[in-house]
Amino acid sequence: MSDVNAAKDFSLSNQNISLLTTSGMLELYVLSVGNGVSWVVPQTLSVEVITLKPTSDKEIVWQGKKIPLVMLTDKKNVSHALVIDGVQDQLRYAIATTSEPILVNVKMSSLKDVDALADAKSTSKASQYVYQHIQHADQTWVVPDLEEVERSFK
Question: Is the N or C terminus of the chain more exposed, i.e. has fewer CB atoms within 10 Å?
Answer without folding.
Answer: C
